[in-house]
Amino acid sequence: MSSMNATHGLVRFSVRLVLLVTVVVLLSAKKCSSLKWASKEVVAGWLYEDGVLDRDSVDLRNAGVSRSDVRDGNCSMDTIVALQSLFNATNGARWVNNTGWGMSDAMCCSWYGVQCHVHSHHAVVTDLELSNNNLNGSVPDELAQSISLQQALISLHMAGNRIKRLPENIGLLTQLAVLDVSENSGSLNLPASLGNTSLVYLHVGNGTEHPPYEGVELIQVPVSLSSLKKLRVLDLNHNSLDGMLDPGIFQLHHLQVLDLGLGNVGIVFPATGFSGVRKLQRLNLDYTLVYELPENLGVLQDLQSLSVQAMPGVYGGNIPDSIGQLSSLTYLSFAQNYNLKGPVPAAIWNLTNLEYMDISYNMAKGTWPDTFEHHQKLAYLEMGAMFYGNLPDILGQLTGLVHFGIRTNQLSGPLPVSLGNLTKLTFFNVAGNGLNGTIPESYQSFLPNVKGYNCQMDSNNFACPIPKFVPANCGATCSGGDV
After folding, report:
1. What is the mean pLDDT of residues 313-336?
2. Contacts for 440-448 with beta carbons within 8 Å, 24 or more apart?
């Protein structure tokens, strides 16, 4: 019995040592790709937080692993077979850099993109960094069949290639913590076995083309993703998703980034709303099928970015009143939700850390706050909701504005002189309202800097003549005199 306990203890120590050196390699390797949503230091911190590593066991600011450390050991045969299978399946001869690959060299740690840990002259691969390297094909089953990789592979970076499919058995890589296969062509499959991994970072987001992609199969978001209890980042942006998102995703207590934008997936929130994901910092539900946000939106006290725009005729709920409690929010968009009901909550103006705010192209009614003196960080303001009456003088307090748009509201009366204080403006759109009166001379402070279509003042009833300082590109029209 004592011998068995000693053996188990040695195994636990070896795995711990592999993970520890893996993090050091990730932090020190110059060619390791930068992740979109987290630095290497942050990922290492997550591994510490999960108890995988002992924070007191190494000083990550000073530790490093030299290339000579990893060239002294040979990789196992099953590792070589797995890596060569990946090389062959993804047209390795045409990779941008394939140094060392395609040969019988057992020291695979010297191959391009391979990071290792060497222990007792034997090397285990802990990281594959092959992003932006022209991989073209499907990741083969053999990669996950390697016993060595199953025990040691922590991160797999294949972003910016032409990967067609992930292996259905990828869940055999139980130590896998980081998987980045973003910016590949089309939509990648999401194997159900991903739920068996140790992922803290999953990025399968795609390019800029609008889904669904012609000729590309729609993919289901597997229920098993709700089993990834350590997950911090789930980015499935720009994929041809299908079906419904499992509500269990909103019970992943460590989740910080949830990006489903342009995914067209249906979302039904659990009865607990957002209570299970209180650590969220970024939430993107653009072009998803959401009917209404939970009323307890305000529990997301760490949320910095919220985008719920361009729902395909589905979103018909109110903006929850609790939105005013999101004190950390810097980015907010409810744009292009034509079925948005109810008033824009007055509490929305409590968000004094906002830098970007877009509530354009919807039918919700809104009112202005009493003052903007606490909104000095706001640089982008687009208010296409149904605002009525005169533009308030307090808008002149937003001296940090670069973008100001209030197109197609139900405004009337003259333009406030105070807008002349907005000297940083490079975008100005007040078209499609019932504005009248003389365009103030104070606008000479910014109108000459608003070029081309960035200036739109048409479809109003300004007094004639239009002042000469108003550029012709603004399209300002007049009705013969003050109204």
Report:
1. 86
2. 440/414, 440/415, 440/416, 441/467, 441/469, 442/417, 442/418, 443/415, 443/419, 443/469, 443/470, 444/420, 444/469, 445/420, 445/421, 446/420, 446/422, 447/471, 447/474
Q: Does residue 190 contact residue 220 with C-beta atoms inside 8 Å?
A: yes
- Strands 122-129 vs 114-119: parallel, antiparallel or unpaired: antiparallel
Pairing of strands 386-389, 410-414: parallel
pTM of the predicted model, to two decimals?
0.85
Residue among 266, 272, 314, 267 nearest 297 (CA): 272
**CA 112 centroid distance within chain:** 28
Cα–Cα dist 385/382, whole Å: 9
Q: In Å, what is the CA distance from 470 to each residue of 403, 439, 453, 464, 478?
A: 18, 8, 13, 12, 12
The 10s digit of each residue's pLDDT in 157-199 is 999 999 989 999 999 999 999 999 988 876 678 899 999 999 9
- Model confidence at 209, pLDDT cuts 50, 70, 90, reads very low
| Cα–Cα distance list, 292 to 268, 288, 320, 337, 358 (Å) | 9, 11, 9, 11, 18
DSSP per position, 187-251:
PPP--GGGGGS--SEEE----SSPSSPTTPPPEE--GGGGG-TT--EEE--S--EESEE-GGGGG
Residues 6+ apart with CB under 8 A from 39: none
Query: To which residue do tokens 């090397």 refer?
Result: 123
Instruction: Name 356's bridge partners.
Output: 331, 380
pLDDT of amino acid 406: 93
Dihedral over alpha carbons 245, 249, 250, 252 (to 10 degrees): 180
Residue 51: pLDDT band with limits 50, 70, 90: low
Of all residues in the chain, the percent with pLDDT exceeding 70 is 82
Tokens of 105: 């060299």
Instruction: Name beta bridge partners: 434.
Output: 412
Express each pLDDT in 96-114 by its tens digit.
999 999 887 778 999 999 9
Q: How far is CA 467 from CA 57, 120, 441, 447, 472, in A?
A: 71, 82, 8, 11, 10
- As a whole number of angstroms, the distance between CA 34 and CA 40 comes to 7
Rounded-to-integer distance, Cα 177 and Cα 459, Å: 55
Peptide bond into 212 cis (omega under 30): yes
**Nearest 10 degrees: Cα torsion 34, 39, 44, 48:** -150
Helix (H) or strand (E) holding 82: helix 77-89
Is residue 306 within a helix (H) or strand (E), and if so which, with residue range? Answer: strand 305-307
pLDDT at 94 over 90: yes
Contacts of 331 (CB under 8 A, 6+ apart): 304, 305, 306, 307, 354, 355, 356
